[in-house]
Amino acid sequence: MIARLSGTLAEIGADFAVVDCGGVGYLAQCSARTLAALPPVGGAARLLVETLVRQDEIRLLGFSDRAERDWYKLLVTVQGVGPRTALAILSALAPEELTRAVAAGDKASIARAEGVGPKLAARVAAELKDRAGAMFLGALGQAKPGAAEPSPAEAMGRAANEAISALVNLGYRQAEAFGAVAQAAQTLGQRATLDALVKAGLKELSAR
Predict the structure, then answer these.
(1) Interacting residues of 151 by C-beta distance below 8 A, sequence separation 6+
(2) Dihedral of CA 79/83/88/89: which sign?
(3) SS3 12
(4) pTM value?
(5) Who contacts 162 (Cβ-Cβ below 8 Å, separation ≥6)?
(6) What is the DSSP secondary structure assignment for residue 118, as one 8-state letter?
(7) What is the C-alpha separation between 8 and 19, in angstroms, rounded?
(8) CA dist 106 to 73, 79, 93, 125, Å?
(9) Coil, strand, or helix at residue 64?
(10) Parallel, antiparallel, or unpaired for β 24-30 and 16-21?
(11) Rounded to whole angstroms, how far apart are CA atoms 76 and 4?
(12) How many CA atoms lie within 13 A of 198 on its CB side?
């Protein structure tokens, strides 16, 4: 199983890159975002890799960072989303944009990807919303090393986690609470208070 390629960029195409590792050229299909992040041909390149093994082929998919690879793994769990479609979505939306879009149920943004229609975009948003909400809120709550005081995003992340606990205490499932508070956080912004998040989360849950 190949997990990473490090070497010289030998070739780049519309949807692939070839990395020369010790005299062997490995072709990896990549999103437009990953291809744009690569150096010019002849430069040092590094790709994280997913290896697809099928009866008649072995295919490599390359990613510029772990966030993109993690989102690829999530996307292909959705019925109707194969490797090509997942890469198309990741070409249209960076991981942080995709996290916000799915957490907020923004089907229109997901449907910007080539080959993704409204029905498939809705399925992606519905099936991955709670998991995206957890990723979104987790990113908000990450404090930067050495910071004397929490940033607005960090403070809101903590308030969001408390809001999730409050909704769980009211009898909602944690997955439901994650999705509702993520939607509330997306709507209200970084200055949202705990009280505002709980109220908006309850409104979101009652609308489902």
Answers:
(1) 143, 144
(2) positive
(3) strand
(4) 0.71
(5) 194
(6) H
(7) 6
(8) 20, 18, 12, 7
(9) coil
(10) antiparallel
(11) 20
(12) 13
